[in-house]
Amino acid sequence: MTAAKEVRALALVCTLTPSPAESSSDLLARHVLDQLAAQGVKGETIRVVDQEVKPGVAVDMGDGDVWPAIRSRLLEADILLLATPIWLGHPSSIAQRVLERLDAELSETDDEGRPRMYNKVATVAVVGNEDGAHKVSADLFQALDDVGFTIPAGGVTYWVGEAMHGTDYKDLDEVPEQVAKTTEQLASNAAHLARVLRENPYPA
């Protein structure tokens, strides 16, 4: 009997902060990946700001563009986690660039004629020190759905601090209980859905 292929997750962290500086978006993404690992899912993280992802809406924008390499890792993954801070009430500009590059998938199909992102699960993690997580996740989920991803129940986890305060997620002494529970539920549902889609893919 052939062993089942390992379920894999890719976290694209869309902080504006380059490595190696600490990032709340990166930290929450790693918390999600920890919970996915508890579900038997192998994960990896890419901090997109560290990569030369050129602007555009094509699969490959030419010399120096790192997106094709990131895309190949995405094609190998079953679950995408898009992690972003809230800036001025919106996802970061890096998150928007990722969505714009994913727009190319609208014209990409697999061997059976399905969009390449069909049968892949999309989840979202949002951090900020003002309200707006629901609006940001709604923006991201609409775009991810457009290009073919499937969104699980409870597919977002987030943390926002009080209005007018400067505390970041990475500055907390401990993860708030409700955030931890939400992150755990996201991971459980995403892993379950990824396995369902692997065994029962969408029809061509």
**Count of helical segments?**
5
The CATH topology corresponds to Rossmann fold
Radius of gyration: 16 Å
Find the structural class using helix and strand composition.
alpha/beta
Arithmetic mean pLDDT: 95
Query: Can you identify the CATH class?
Result: Alpha Beta
CATH homologous superfamily assignment: Flavodoxin domain
**Overall morphology:** globular
Largest β-sheet summary: 6 strands, mixed
Strand proportion, as a percent range, falls in 15-25%
Helix-strand pattern, N to C?
A: EHEHEEHEHEH
Instruction: Provide the helix percentage.
Output: 25-40%
CATH architecture verdict: 3-Layer(aba) Sandwich
Overall number of structural domains: 1
Pfam families: FMN_red
Protein name: Multimeric flavodoxin WrbA
Domain NADPH-dependent FMN reductase-like: 19-160
Organism: Kutzneria kofuensis
Describe the 3D structure.
It is a single chain. The chain is an alpha/beta fold. It is built from five helices and six strands; from the N terminus they run E-H-E-H-E-E-H-E-H-E-H. The protein has helices at residues 24-38, 67-76, 93-102, 133-146, 177-199; strands at residues 8-13, 42-47, 79-87, 90-91, 121-128, 156-160. Helix 1 (24-38) crosses helix 5.
Helices and strands in order:
Layout: E1 8-13, H1 24-38, E2 42-47, H2 67-76, E3 79-87, E4 90-91, H3 93-102, E5 121-128, H4 133-146, E6 156-160, H5 177-199
Parallel strand pairs: 1-2, 1-3, 3-5, 5-6
Antiparallel strand pairs: 3-4
Helix pairs in contact: 1-5
